[in-house]
């Protein structure tokens, strides 16, 4: 089920700095909350996010429980060549979710 | 007791006003009361977390389900066309059940009677996803409650409920949302309680939730026993809220603090 | 949010008693005490190297409606070339149960030394952004945020 949302411009000029936004549906359970039964709700967060483009990781992030639910990041990259930007989110259990977006660079 | 006093004090700060319906010219969406930051989250689809639920609804729309193995799309086609304006006219009268039904109830009805699938519980991720997706197709359109005589009784009941004092704090919806909508309570704007953005992404919930969940929050706030999800009372309230907000543009998925 | 969601009455009481400043008391005390100070957290990131003020702009609204999603933008003055760029940007908070918020890794291909995210703040407090540049220097900027909370908070049960 698609629960990630990335926005990347469809086209760009070589060398242009482009804006990117990425979001994933995830509760980012802190591990500090109590359930109705008084038991601590176990921590479960997205720990790592990375964006790869043209053979290289151009941006990455390490998240802690203080990052909001449905974590959102906005950053940029330099348009180098046409192709896919791939996005990767890894949670506490090592489960990986990915998304990708194509860009045409001229 | 302390709470009652604190609430009363909060309302006093807001200035005592007599409950009176808000004239059409003064009707304003909850969005107008939010901080610039919260408005910015809502305004940009790439940063509005509610769009994650829209996406989920879109995949469910296309997915065959139940004994019929039919998808919503197999009967309704492109939602952008078939569902455009639908949310603007709900709740509506449902001939099958002979009672008013809200959008989530209607979707669940198609799910059970047409897809022959298990019903979707209120506030389940699936029903919220589908309702947000269908609601989103009416974004920008004015709320247009149907002038169906079969809805009159329930709408009048909704108005009565809205104006009935309830809970240990003995306040009606109207005490806050008609009489003190300019005020603030514990840091938040009271607002006019218009159902323009539902289902909404609420920062407090860190998730999308329905109008009924939002109303339950207010009922718990005045320490009243909230109505049950899907109850005739909530549908009556939804009918009245839609009439009260007639003409305001839908914003689904709105973001609220 | 780093608080018990079940304590409706307690929480409302606190809110009405004058803002969210006391919410951290609802946390398990052991954890609340165990967290490093803001300074210790920054030292952990820089390896004790000196941190200069400047070059970094930390943008947060001074007053936020809900601590569950506070928009933060960090912008660092840098040409972002192979020889002169931002390597990492870390965000720390003063009063959440953990000092760390996030650490971002950038490079010349990032194009700009700038990013935005949304974070949780358990209460009104100070935030600090620290940037590590490619020459090994550290720069920082801090900001104070006042957190108000939604008034009608429902019971989870």
From TrEMBL, chain A:
Coiled coil: none annotated. NCBIfam families: SoxZ_true. SUPFAM superfamilies: E set domains (SSF81296). It comes from the Bacteria. Pfam families: SoxZ. This is Thiosulfate oxidation carrier complex protein SoxZ. Residues 9-101 form the Sulphur oxidation protein SoxZ domain. It comes from Ancylobacter defluvii.
Automatic annotation (TrEMBL), chain B:
Pfam families: SoxA-TsdA_cyt-c (PF21342). Its main location: periplasm. GO terms for biological process: sulfur oxidation. The active site is at residue 218. Transmembrane segments: none annotated. Substrate binds at residue 214. It catalyses: S-sulfanyl-L-cysteinyl-[SoxY protein] + thiosulfate + 2 Fe(III)-[cytochrome c] = S-(2-sulfodisulfanyl)-L-cysteinyl-[SoxY protein] + 2 Fe(II)-[cytochrome c] + 2 H(+); L-cysteinyl-[SoxY protein] + thiosulfate + 2 Fe(III)-[cytochrome c] = S-sulfosulfanyl-L-cysteinyl-[SoxY protein] + 2 Fe(II)-[cytochrome c] + 2 H(+). It is found in: Periplasm. Its EC number is 2.8.5.2. Keywords: Electron transport, Heme, Iron, Metal-binding, Periplasm, Signal, Transferase, Transport. Binds 2 heme groups per subunit. Its cofactor is heme. Residues 56-143, 157-249 form the Cytochrome c domain. GO terms for molecular function: electron transfer activity; heme binding; metal ion binding; oxidoreductase activity, acting on a sulfur group of donors, cytochrome as acceptor; transferase activity. Residues 1-19 form the signal peptide. GO terms for cellular component: cytochrome complex; periplasmic space. SUPFAM superfamilies: Cytochrome c. It is an enzyme of class 2 (transferase). Heme c 1 binds at residues 72, 75-76, 110. Heme c 2 binds at residues 173, 176-177, 218. The keyword rRNA-binding does not apply. Belongs to the SoxA family. C-type monoheme cytochrome, which is part of the SoxAX cytochrome complex involved in sulfur oxidation. The SoxAX complex catalyzes the formation of a heterodisulfide bond between the conserved cysteine residue on a sulfur carrier SoxYZ complex subunit SoxY and thiosulfate or other inorganic sulfur substrates. This leads to the liberation of two electrons, which may be transferred from the SoxAX complex to another cytochrome c that then channels them into the respiratory electron transport chain. Some electrons may be used for reductive CO(2) fixation. Heterodimer of SoxA and SoxX. This is SoxAX cytochrome complex subunit A. It comes from Ancylobacter defluvii. The lineage of its organism: Bacteria, Pseudomonadati, Pseudomonadota, Alphaproteobacteria, Hyphomicrobiales.
UniProtKB/TrEMBL annotation, chain C:
InterPro entries: SoxY, SoxY_para_1, SoxY_sf, Sulphur_oxidation_SoxY, TAT_signal. Residues 45-152 form the Ig-like SoxY domain. Pfam families: SoxY. It comes from the Bacteria. NCBIfam families: SoxY_para_1. This is Sulfur oxidation protein SoxY.
